[in-house]
Amino acid sequence: MSTPTLAVIGAGPKAIAVAAKAAELRTLGVPAPDVVVVERAGVAANWQAIGGWTDGQHRLGTSPEKDVGFPYRSSLVPRRNAELDERMMRHSWQSFLIDIGHFAEWVDRGRPAPTHRRWSQYLNWVADNIGMTVVSGEVTEIGVDDDQTAWMLQTDDDTVRADAVMVTGPGQAEKSILPGNPRVLSIAQFWHRAAAQELITAERVAVIGGGETAATMLNELFRHRVSTITVISPQVTLFTRGEGFFENTLYSDPTHWSGLTLSERRDAMNRTDRGVFSARVQEALLADDRIRHLRGRVAHAVARDERIRLTLLSDTGAERSETVHGFDLVIDGSGANALWFVPLLAPDALDMLELGLGRPLTGESLQESIGDDLAVRGVIPKLFLPGLAGLNQGPGFPNLSCLGLLSDRVLAADLRASSAITDRSIRSTDERLREEETSTDEHQSVR
């Protein structure tokens, strides 16, 4: 029987964590899928200036010890999981620092958060050590084969056939509310200017977004020549992310997550992840009197009189208010989009997904469908969406908080569509036989 192939879109931490765990399983003689990663820019590109999400010089918001093997509690190989974790330690952050001769210095400096660029070097080091297979190219279409038993990923130069697909990454950083207007910068445009050391000079600057993407931009803007910086977000204020032991445990260990009600899960995620700034960034904001906050969602943007006028909608009790504000420069930092891949779905793939979901494909329907293996329930071949797994499976899966658990969940899944279809057929046959037996028994009892 041939080895199944798992294709991963995006060569970031999640792809590398799964590829590293699969490689170590094979060294133990345990069957594991062939992991093929399709990447448009380069390994760990989103942690470098080339990816458009950073200039590479800002600090990682998560502890670097939450690396590709964290939390080192593998559950894939009974009686050999400790051995598997030991092998994964060869790909740890500490092992990387030892390899490049910086471990003692890092410890003596108090274990500081590394820059994004250094984190990307770590990820590349792991990918090189395991010989990760990378197909260079941007995925232009996600389809299925004629039998709907395999995924077909189309790039400009290649087609990758896979038994299962995992989608990763935050999407494209090039989008903005007014594309092409020099007074409106996308995330990528902002960071490209920062990487080129181009200082922004403006009186009134607006940053759209209240999450960590916008927070990192604010951290960068502090050194630019701007008079006022207005943060626009739907929240009533700029909340600080909870970073204590109990909050962090929710991300590292989702054991009790499923026991929470849906409203409790949403509340926990809102308090610790969505639309919140890290304590480090908030401390910097307090020290800078140029920062302002406006509550609302941007409903409309127009260029007029050498300014960008933003129309904001906000709910005030039972009423909805609408206000207009003018800025010299607007930075659209509204952040990542976990549904970025949906426009790439071919009609047959979209039909297959909606049939499995039993309803139209939306962000809500996908989130609520994510199973224990981080794949969409009821869909064969498997489609893993860890970026949407937070609500059902735990808030650590969409980010860097439990990459080792993520790789366990994905690699424990049955990736063979044929076997899943066979199992489904067997179950259907068994159910039909049971129904026939029940019907016979009832008929005999009537007689």
| Uncertain regions spanning at least 5 consecutive residues | 419-447
Largest sheet: 5 strands, parallel
Strand percentage: 15-25%
| Name of the CATH architecture of the largest domain | 3-Layer(bba) Sandwich
Task: List the domain count as a whole number.
Answer: 2
CATH C-level class of the largest domain = Alpha Beta
User: What's the shape?
Assistant: globular
Q: What share of the residues lie within helices? A: 25-40%
Look at the structure and give the mean pLDDT: 89
Output the number of helix runs. Answer: 15
Ends apart, CA distance between termini: 51 Å
The order of strands across the largest sheet is: 3-2-1-7-18
What is the CATH H-level superfamily of the largest domain?
A: FAD/NAD(P)-binding domain
What name is given to the CATH topology of the largest domain?
FAD/NAD(P)-binding domain
The overall strand count is 18
User: In angstroms, what is the radius of gyration?
Assistant: 24 Å
Which structural class matches the secondary elements?
A: alpha/beta
Describe this structure as you would to a colleague:
The protein has helices at 13-27, 81-88, 93-100, 103-108, 116-130, 187-195, 212-221, 245-252, 262-272, 279-286, 347-357, 363-369, 390-393, 403-411, 417-446; strands spanning 5-9, 34-39, 133-136, 141-144, 151-154, 159-162, 164-167, 184-185, 201-208, 225-233, 239-240, 276-277, 291-295, 297-304, 307-316, 319-327, 329-332, 382-384. With 447 residues, it is of the alpha/beta class. The radius of gyration is 24 Å and the shape is globular. The chain is built from 15 helices and 18 strands. The model is unreliable at 419-447 (pLDDT under 50). The chain has two domains: 5-171 and 337-415, 3-Layer(bba) Sandwich (FAD/NAD(P)-binding domain), CATH 3.50.50; 184-241 and 278-332, FAD/NAD(P)-binding domain (3-Layer(bba) Sandwich), CATH 3.50.50. The protein starts with a strand and ends with a helix. The strands form five sheets. It has a five-stranded parallel β-sheet, covered by helices on one side. Strands 8-17-9-10-13 form a five-stranded parallel β-sheet. The chain has a three-stranded antiparallel β-sheet with strand order 4-5-6. The longest helix is centred in the last third of the chain and has 30 residues, at 417-446. Strand 4 (141-144) and strand 5 form a beta hairpin. GO terms for molecular function: L-lysine 6-monooxygenase (NADPH) activity. Pathway: Siderophore biosynthesis; mycobactin biosynthesis.
